[in-house]
Structure formats: structure tokens, C-alpha cells
Amino acid sequence: MITPGTAVAFVRRSRREGAIDLLFLAPTLAILGCFLAYPLVYGIVLSLHDTKGFDLTNFVGLGNYAHAILGDAVFHRALLNTVLFTGAAVVLQTGLGLFLAVLVADVKRGTTFFRFVFFVPFVLASVAVGAVWKFLYAPYFGIVPTVGSALGFDTLTVAPLADPHTALWAIMVAFLWRFAGFNMVVYLAAIQGLSPEYYEYARLEGASRFQAFRHVTWPLLWPATFTLVLLTTLGTLRIFDMVWIMTEGGPSHATETVATDIYQTAFRFLQVGYAQAMAMILLLVILGFAVVEYRFLDRRAEAVSS
Amino acid sequence: MSGLPRVRWATVFLGALAVIWLYPVVWTLTNAVRSSADIDRAPWDLSWPPAIGNIGEAWSRGQLAAALANSASVTVMTVFAVLALSVCGAYSLTRLRPPGRAVLFLIVLAPLMIPTEVLVVPLFSIFRTLGLINSLPGLALTNVVANVSFATVILAGYFRTIPREVIDAARVDGAGRVDVLLRIVIPLGRPGIGAVAVLVSVSTWNDFGASLVLIQKPDAFTVQLALSRFSTFYSTDRGLTFAGMAIAILPPLVLFIVLHRSFIQGLTAGAIRR
């Protein structure tokens, strides 16, 4: 029987117990505090100051932000490129991933093989992928001139990465090749988790393949779609590696992204405080997108799972 | 699996796509063992016999032996640190009862929204003060910060599937928290721990952004830095460049081929469970 005395002892003991339970998480919290939270706070401080090298000089308030938002054409271009690229990545990666997953799920044998093949580029380093695609896009030697000439077009000197009109979308193709497999794998796992009864029912109702997809598969996959849209957005707004390797943001800022702009501003031009202001703006953009997507997409995801 | 009539054209179409998908990878690996003259003559051929010499030359000229050793040591340090932190952390969050558990979970989750790119500038400044520029443990530290949240979230998913009754029974029998962790949680959570180890090692091996900023001395270069430098220097010597790329992509590729089930399971578990 529990007397008031033992209950108090129990509560008191469990408070100490709770502290011990917390100890297991403490190292993670300490690392995140020192090397994530503190840099974040210090980053805010940096962004509000003029800097000489990496040292703070004058407090300028929101001056760096104002300059980035109002007066920096390169930053505007970088922001626009980043958002466009992310929008395209979300639509194309999710679309291609779903398309591949639906096809691969329907294959009688070889599902594992196809899953493997389309996923392989995901594990390759961005430096290597960027370098390979640079070769594929080379004039004379690359795939566009080779295939074009074979088809009888005059394409020997076509260099997609050197042309400001095509460079960003050429990177997009390489990006899609690298990441579509991830989306496919997630969709495939979700499709394989769907109960066959739904399709049995759809078939009895006389639904066509397309109707079954439209009214059964697509709505039931909404939680996976939500997750992928969010992950792709978060992963693409920060894009740096592939762009840096393939074009360094050129030609004439046609492929500049916010991350490449931050890197150059901080480490080539040593405008540290200003670069950090751009980084904080990027963080706000990322959080803004995440919140909006969460608001609008999660509700539908919950409707499906309930 | 959709239970609808299967069509064979899909297999044919997928087969064609699979060839396109694999071509750049196979092309890189085969060009790695071709002479540059041969590549220039017919870039799209797969030639035989292999010119193994490229690999040796890329190895010595790109100082790849040192770079591989650097990447390996950063990867090993990162994986061990991330595992130690995330196993204990996920254990605490899912199978112990720290006060304010829901809030703690959000704190661990929040960094997933904050990419390294946003913090490189202050991190560089802090690392400079701490003398961690050009330091491999320093680079490992940034990789730990970049990976620990997602590792903890994935492991939390795995640990939640361990029945509480098993743990409670052991606790009643007098087992302490550490006993439970070592004897129950780690053995039963092994698939998840393995998946996290593979995912973290590939992401650390492939890291470029953080190393570009934090490592400036060539003798501390990782494979990715050596390769990016190398492909700029020797871009006209194509055989050599491809050899360098092949060396850089092979370790994760082999790891993925051997462990691809656990790799994909870990990723989808992390992505689907929210």
C-alpha cells in the first residue's frame, strides 16, 4: 500500500532518477550547445557588425541586412537562383522519384536490382559527381556534342555549363541524377507498405490503372510526399558542393547560389560580417519555407493517416 | 505490387533507364584505367586492356595515400563519436524518462533545420580561436555536429520498437541503466546502429563544404579536397583525373554494394517515421 510518505519519497527519488536519465543525453546537448547554438548566436552578433578580417569593428545594426536586401544585385541573383533551383528540385525530384517507384514496384523480378541502380549516385561524393558531369557537359568531348553530332546537329561547341542561359539547368540535371533515387527509395518503401486490399477494391469498382493511381496510390502516399518535399527543400536551399565544383557560381553569376555567395564573400573578399548577414537571411528563408510547407502539407498528411 | 495487371514495357523501359543511370559511374571507373590519348580519341568507348598505370600515377601525384588516410581518420573519429552520442541520447529519449522529454526531443530535432552552410563563418572564427583550423579532429567535430541529430532521430525510431516490458523486467531484477543499455538496447538495436554507422561514414567521407573552409594545408587534405584540387590541376590529363575520381568514389561505393539493404532501410526508416 502506498502511504503519503512513500509517495513523497517516490517523487523525490524519481526527480533524481530523471536527472540521471538526462545524463545520457547531456553530451549531445553539450556538443550542440557549444558548436551549434553558440555559433548561431555569435553568427547573429557578427551579422550586426562591420568586420576587419574575422574581428568585429563597428556595430552597424541591420545595415548588413539592408544592404543585402536592398542594394546587392549578386545576392538578389543568388537568392532567386536558389529558390528557383529548389522549386525545380522539389517538383522534378519528387515527380521522377514517384514515377520510378511506381514502375519499379510493378516489376515482377529485379525490384532490388533497380532500386540499387537508381540509388547508386546518392552515395557518390558531390566532388566526383560534379567532376564527372563537367566532363559530360564538355564541348567537343562531352555527351551533348557526341549525341548531337550523331543525330546530325551542329553541336560540337555546345557547352551547357559555359552558357548563362543553360548552366543552372545543366546542374539541375546532374542534381536530379544524383538525388532522384533517394526519393524513389522512400516512395518505394511507402508503396510496398500499402495494403493490396485497396487495389482489390479499386479493381472491383472497375478503376483503370491511372484511376487507381490517382485515387488510391497518390492520396495514400501523401505522408511520404510531404516528407520528401520538406527534405528536398531543406537539402536544396543550402546547395553548395555541386555548384561550386561545376561552375563556382559562374558564368557571370548565372549559377550563383546563396551558399556560394556566402563562401566567396567571407573567404575570398573577407567581408565576414556581411557574409554572415546573408547566411542569416538564408536561415530565415529555410525556416520560412519549412513552416509554410508544414502548415499547408502536414494537414493533408494527417488527414490521410487518420 | 499495386495488384494491377503487369505490363512488360515497364521492365524494358526501366532497363533502358538503368543503363543511362549507371553509365556515368561505369564510364568513370573504366576511364580510370584508360590512357588519356585513348580517352581523347574515343571518349565513350569501354576499352580493353586496362591501363593500370593511371591509378598508380594519380595515387602518387595527387598525394592520395595521405588524403585517403586523412579521410579515413576523420570518418572513423566521426562515426565513433556520433554513435556514442546518439546511442546514449536516443536511449535516454525513448527508453528512459528525462524531465521535459518532449522539449528535449525538439531541441535535438531543431538542428536538422540549420545547415552547416549557415554557420561556416562563425564556426571558422571559433575554430581559429581554438586552434582547430587544419586539424582533423576539428573537422571530425563539425561532422559530428552535422550528423548527430539525424543519427539520434533514426536510432530513437529503432529503440522505440524494443518492448518496454523487457527493459522493465531487467530493471526489476536489479539491472542498472548501463546494464540495460549494454545488454538489451545495443544488441536489439544493432540493425539501426549499423545503418547509422554506414550513413554517417558515407556522409562524412563525402563531405566537401566544411573541409573546404576548415582545411587549408595540403598535408591535411581529405580525399574530396585533394580531388577538387587535382581535377583542376590535371584537367587536361583525363586518364589521371578519372583515376583520382575512381579512387574517391570506390570506398563508399563498395560499402554501399555490400551493405545496401541496411543502408536503404536506415534511410527510409528515418524519412518515413516522423
Provide an overview of this structure.
The complex is a heterodimer of chains A (306) and B (274). By secondary structure, chain A is mostly helical. Helices cover 75% and strands 3% of the residues of chain A. Chain A contains 14 helices and two strands. Chain A has helices at 4-23, 26-47, 63-71, 73-106, 111-123, 126-136, 143-150, 167-192, 196-204, 209-220, 222-237, 241-246, 258-267, 272-305, and strands at residues 49-52, 55-59. In chain A, a hairpin with a 2-residue loop joins strand 1 and strand 2 (55-59). In chain A, helix 4 (73-106) packs antiparallel against helix 11 and helix 4 packs across helix 13 (258-267). With 274 residues, chain B is mainly α. In chain B, helix 4 packs parallel to helix 7, helix 7 packs antiparallel against helix 10 (190-206) and helix 12 (223-233) packs antiparallel against helix 13 (238-272). At the A-B interface, helix 1, helix 2, helix 4, helix 5 and helix 6 of A face helix 1, helix 4, helix 5, helix 6 and helix 7 of B.
- β content of chain A, as a range? under 5%
**Considering DSSP H and I runs of 4 or more, what fraction of the residues of chain A is helical?**
over 70%
Distance from N terminus to C terminus of chain A (CA atoms, Å) equals 41 Å
What's the shape of chain B? globular
Q: What class would the helix/strand composition of chain B place it in?
A: mainly alpha
Largest sheet of chain B: none
Mean pLDDT of chain B: 84
**What Rg of chain B is obtained from the alpha carbons, in whole angstroms?**
23 Å
SS elements, strand count of chain A: 2
> What's the Cα radius of gyration of chain A?
25 Å
Average pLDDT over all residues of chain A:
86
Give the topology string of chain A: H per helix, E per strand. HHEEHHHHHHHHHHHH
Oligomer: heterodimer
Total of DSSP H or I helical runs spanning 4+ residues of chain A: 14
Identify the strand order in the major beta sheet of chain A: 1-2
SS-based class of chain A: mainly alpha
Count of alpha/pi helices of chain B: 13
Number of strands of chain B: 0
Compressed to H and E, one letter per element, the order of chain B equals HHHHHHHHHHHHH
